[in-house]
């Protein structure tokens, strides 16, 4: 899921909340000025600075349960400029209404691409949810996500 041509099958357009936009470093929208590999014409997802709500989410399609044979790992790259919010990855199992937080980062090392791999265990169908929670909206704040990779076990 590299966002070069679209949002890819794992992230249905329906679940793209207002605020997330697919763009590249040449868009004139401020940092990041390239994707995680340094290519300024390559696409990634970013939150527009016009986002007014205190949180916005990006939800995957439904995945089947994991087991010893089907281990699901999700690897992704992310960028956070300034720290007045937290990027979180959560798991929503189909029998639950709540989202279980499985990872978060509030941008200790700002203005650089970082990568992360999360291993998911679920005995039932589930969705993965990327969310950005903001305490106070600041000018020039950017959050971006690039190259989400789902292992075969997903």
UniProtKB/TrEMBL annotation:
CDD domains according to UniProt: MAM (cd06263)
SMART domains given in the database record: MAM (SM00137)
Top-rank taxon, per record: Eukaryota
Domain (MAM): residue spans on this chain: 1-154
Family matches, as Pfam families: MAM
GO CC field: membrane
PANTHER family with a match to the protein in the record: APICAL ENDOSOMAL GLYCOPROTEIN PRECURSOR, MAM DOMAIN-CONTAINING PROTEIN
Protein name: MALR1 protein
Origin species: Cepphus grylle
